[in-house]
Amino acid sequence: MSTPAAITRPAAERTDRIDLLLAASPPRRRAGALAASATFGRRAMLKIKHDPKQLVDSIAIPILFTVLFTYLFGGALGGSPGDYLTMLLPGTLSMSIAIVTMYGGARLAKDVTTGAFDRFRSLSVWRGAFVLGGLLSDAARYLFASAMVVLLGLAMGYRPEGGAPGVLAAVALVVAFGLSLSLLWAAVALLVPDQGVVISIANLVLMPLSFASNIFVQPSTMPGWLQAVVEVNPLSHVATAARELMNGGAGTGAVTWSLVATAVIAGVCAPLDLHLYGRRG
Amino acid sequence: MSKNSMGRDHPAIEAYGLVKVYGENRALDGIDLTVRRGQVFGFLGPNGAGKTTTIRILATLTRPDGGTARVLGHDLIGERDAIRARSAVTGQFAALDDDLTGYENLSILGRLHGLSGAAVRRRADDLLDAFELAGAAGRPVGGYSGGMRRRLDIAAGLIVTPDLLFLDEPTTGLDPRSRNQVWELVRRIAEAGTTVLLTTQYLEEADQLAEQIAVIDHGRIVAEGTSAQLKSRVGSGTLHVRLLDGEQRPRARQVLAGALDGTVRPAADPLTLSVLLPAPADATDVGRLVGQAMTMLAEARVAVAEVTLGQPSLDEAFLALTGHPAGPAPTDHEDVNA
Ligand SMILES: Nc1ncnc2c1ncn2[C@@H]1O[C@H](COP(=O)(O)OP(=O)(O)OP(=O)(O)O)[C@@H](O)[C@H]1O
Ligand SMILES: [Mg+2]
């Protein structure tokens, strides 16, 4: 509670200081849109600093997926680990980041239920700042998770033909796609502010996207209808684009598809987020 | 400094017919409200009366389903950013970040108010110091006591001194010492010129702090006035008479009803009667009336163990103002009693 100094200080002096403080208010100024976004990003980083457990998902999922998928599916593909990592690792990267996106939505739902969200909404701040700040911290998280996958792959013998530029381009593409998913989960969290529900809905979307894709299995082995699903699944295209970029020999098809999918999801969800943020229940 | 903005003469809050409906529940059922500038206005009501809903609407967080309001001269719907810039909300629903330290909480909010890094540091340090939180500034808020938390919450509303401060139940759950600290803060803030709209469930709190009090029940304002005006409607106080012998209670009740022009109710304790005293024209009459009543009890040979005269409680105030006890919706209540 109070420090001894505060107890011995005369009450009149304390209250006089409050009067002075109220009179000496800093001028009222609206925070710039970028400064406010950066502040929300900093808030998320501070939360990670105080509770590093939040990063467990972003560490555990990439490690688990990379190791598990390499030894689970690697045998079926034959060759040395270096060979089958060429096929698997870009897909593992895409899937890991996609899964990790849902925890950002869960955290937003928590902010809404605890009231932190209402306090921020009661300020005169550009309404996009809260969402954009969340994206900044998400981007840092996704880059971190990507680094885990790539470094682990390299340690297990993966040698990307595309070199550093190819790997960086693939990571950028995957992170961009992940951020569009962040915007989607933000909309879900603002509609249903319940952590558990947000995670369930995200799982319901991400699990089929991950498995009905070309990440683990060649679509040619699948029944026709499933091949059609794989064909329109944006995560398939992201995985293909990452594979092409990392292993050299990138065509423009999959990369374009991925960028279009990213832009469409973001283009629908960003305005929706802004609307839901500004909405008054 | 901020006080000389245009239109000094308009009230801080003018609301007409505010309505908020949740499903079947009319949480607010036509609230009219005028709060003068610089005033501490008390919004008094039991659980579920609509206090938080009213504050949320006036602070632009919830959209009303009916009615209009001007806050600090700005239209509630059209000029929401101007209202947000000049007012601050603390209390029940606007939470702090538990996992961040007290300093970090203020620092984040300071940056969102457009302060520079140096200005934020200075203001946060000054506020933490003045609110006796300097020693805890580096600790996560999750570990603060209730009183510390409430003080930080109020400090967070003063990063830029607001023209209007909403305080939603600022002392609920606090011990008497912390409660007195918060009261002192509220008085200081009001003296410095900030208009304060505070909600409370305690008549005493409204009495201590507010110049004007509105009593809200089931989404309607059932009474409004100064503390003195409300008390004159509620009565000057409650007389509790404890008897030595419970057998004598009916006789005592008869005597007291005759002697005092108030409602006599048997209390839960079988030895006690309570009388809600009407407000006499002259306050000194209360003692004379009570004295007379005691004499009459003695003449009727009723043995009295204890006599106390107290302020009406919120329950008694409600009973007097609304005709029903403070509590959940009357339908629920009757079902329980049936
Ligand atoms: N978001 C909401 N959805 C549905 N009903 C609500 C919502 N918010 C409030 N209510 C209902 O509206 C009524 C008024 O609630 P409000 O929170 O304004 O009361 P209050 O006076 O602040 O009570 P308390 O003293 O418990 O804080 C209650 O019946 C409550 O159940
Ligand atoms: Mg409330």
Q: How would you describe this structure in keywords?
A:
heterodimer, A: 281 residues, mainly alpha, 13 helices, 78% helix, disordered N terminus, B: alpha/beta, Rossmann fold, Alpha-Beta Plaits, 2 domains, 6-stranded mixed sheet, 4-stranded antiparallel sheet, 12 helices, 37% helix, elongated, binds magnesium ion
How would you characterize the overall build of this protein?
The complex is a heterodimer of chains A (281) and B (338). Chain A is an all-alpha fold and 281 residues long. Chain A has one domain. Chain A has 13 helices and no strands. In chain A, α3 (33-50) crosses α8 and α5 runs antiparallel to α8. Chain A starts with a helix and ends with a helix. The relative contact order of chain A is 0.12. With 338 residues, chain B is of the alpha/beta class. Chain B has 2 domains: 13-231 and 331-337, P-loop containing nucleotide triphosphate hydrolases (Rossmann fold), CATH 3.40.50.300; 235-311, Alpha-Beta Plaits (2-Layer Sandwich), CATH 3.30.70.3400. Chain B contains 12 helices and 14 strands. Chain B has helices at 51-58, 80-86, 102-112, 117-130, 146-156, 176-191, 203-209, 227-234, 249-259, 285-299, 314-322, 330-337; strands spanning 13-22, 25-35, 40-44, 66-71, 74-75, 87-91, 164-168, 195-200, 212-217, 220-225, 237-243, 263-266, 272-277, 304-310. A 6-stranded mixed sheet of chain B has the order 6-7-8-3-9-10, sandwiched between helices. In chain B, strands 2-1-4-5 form a 4-stranded antiparallel sheet, with helices on one face. Chain B has a 4-stranded antiparallel sheet with strand order 12-13-11-14, covered by helices on one side. In chain B, a hairpin with a 2-residue loop joins β9 and β10 (220-225). In chain B, α3 crosses α4 (117-130) and α9 packs antiparallel against α10. Classes of the chains: A mainly alpha (281), B alpha/beta (338). The structure holds adenosine-5'-triphosphate and magnesium ion. Adenosine-5'-triphosphate binds at residues 22, 25, 27, 45, 47-53, 92, 201 of chain B.
